[in-house]
């Protein structure tokens, strides 16, 4: 459980690094007349993702979940791949990346990096991580609850993001 706790704390630290990047990029976008959309769902997203990390730590302890190598090692590999995809998205979007939906009017849509293959690759990373991270230590209830709640949130989020990009961005 010690190694798993360190993994979850490393993911939490990565999320904090994301927030630093997002805050910097939000200031830049607003300075360029960036328009924010979807403020209402943002607090829900924060609570859901915080709950994922808490559940990852609490469920194995409270429900005495074992580390099952046949499940845990592949789940760890998927978690690491999700992190790599997430940072590929962040670096590809550069100053346009954000945890909020902020679009600078007239900005071009990005069609490079993982965006050549998927319109919203960052959300693939979120989905994979949300299922895989808890399963590293058999926290199947956390994985299930997060996945179901995240499916609802992503439906709202992707609609919001698509509408904002359609309204303000220029096709690549």
Automatic annotation (TrEMBL):
Compartments, as annotated in UniProt: Membrane
Matching InterPro entries: ICMT_MeTrfase, Metal_cation-efflux_comp
Topology class, membrane: Multi-pass membrane protein
PANTHER family per UniProt: BLL3993 PROTEIN (PTHR43847)
Keyword entries, A-Z: Membrane, Transmembrane, Transmembrane helix
Predominant subcellular localization, coarse grouping: membrane
Pfam families named in the record: ICMT
Annotated protein name in UniProt: Isoprenylcysteine carboxyl methyltransferase
UniProt key word Transmembrane helix: yes
Record organism: Streptomyces griseoincarnatus
Keyword Ion transport: no
């Amino acid at each position: 459980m010690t190694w798993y706790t360190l993994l979850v704390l490393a993911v939490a630290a990565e999320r904090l690094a994301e927030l630093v990047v997002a805050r910097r990029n939000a200031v830049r976008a607003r300075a360029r007349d960036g328009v924010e959309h979807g403020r209402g769902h943002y607090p829900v997203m924060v609570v859901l993702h915080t709950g994922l990390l808490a559940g990852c730590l609490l469920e194995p302890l409270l429900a005495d979940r074992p580390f099952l190598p046949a499940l845990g090692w592949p789940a760890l590999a998927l978690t690491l791949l999700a992190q790599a995809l997430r940072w590929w998205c962040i670096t590809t979007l550069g100053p346009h990346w954000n945890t909020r939906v902020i679009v600078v009017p007239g900005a071009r849509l990005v069609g490079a990096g993982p965006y050549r293959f998927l319109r919203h690759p960052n959300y693939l990373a979120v989905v994979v991580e949300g299922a895989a991270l808890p399963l590293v230590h058999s926290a199947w209830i956390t994985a299930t609850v997060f996945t179901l709640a995240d499916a609802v949130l992503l439906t709202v989020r992707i609609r919001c993001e698509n509408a904002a990009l359609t309204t303000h961005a220029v096709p690549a």
